[in-house]
Amino acid sequence: MQTLSAAQTETVEAEFMYQVAAGAPAHDQEVLGIATRRLAGGVVLSARNDPTTYWSKALGFGFDEPVSGHLIDQILDVWRAEQNPSGVLQIAPEVMPDDWDEIRETRGLEPGDRIAKLAAPIDDVVAGGPGAFRIAPVEKEDADPWARAVLDGFGMPHEGISGMLAAMAAHPRFHAYAAWDGDTIAGGGTLFVRGEIGELVAGAVLERYRERGAQTALIAERVRKARELGCRWVVAETAEGRSGNMLRAGLKQLYVRQNHVWRAA
Length: 265
Known about the structure:
Elements: H1 6-22, H2 26-32, E1 34-39, E2 42-47, E3 57-59, H3 69-81, E4 86-90, H4 100-106, E5 110-121, E6 134-137, H5 143-154, H6 162-170, E7 174-181, E8 184-194, E9 197-205, H7 214-228, E10 233-239, H8 244-248, E11 252-263
Parallel strand pairs: 3-4, 9-10
Antiparallel strand pairs: 1-2, 2-3, 4-11, 5-10, 5-11, 6-7, 7-8, 8-9
Helix pairs in contact: 5-6
């Protein structure tokens, strides 16, 4: 199939992560200790008080300038300046330098999780029906319970994070959807649009509603919206080995990216 470049897939992910963190309400930024930086074509996010360790990331690097020891030091210096205890570097395999092992070892970086990057031309993505759930855009009055449901689906705490997700539902570049079981939000998912690429993000369903088609329906509705907005591509990322719903929808794995974890000495 025709494919996107790693530069395109990594850049759209970096941008949506930056927009989520930078757009967090002041309360959440203070609680999590959020700082955001643009650097060398990528982004560095720092959330020193984040109990999940998810929101301290560096990604989108290696396309405006090569990945080097100097660049990695600049990234780590952001986390050190923010007194962050840890962070995760996410670098596409095709831009990893030949001396990466030396760079990694001399800076104490350790292998972490592996992330599958997926994509497909939008016309190749299979549309699904709502099944047992009503899928609808998240209205202002539902943003807070929607954010809590998504976090519960991921098994994440609410404090300092739910306001950040609720703000995402109101952001003009994000399109948030809820899966409703009667008057109850069973799960949710979001579409981020950058040019001709629609990124599927923040998709999660409460445990008691899983295996009933909610994820399939949320993917289908976000793809429908992406098509309406003129997107030509759909992209996503999941933990390696957990891409089933995306693959069934027609996305294909482009590559697997190794996380590298830094911890303060």
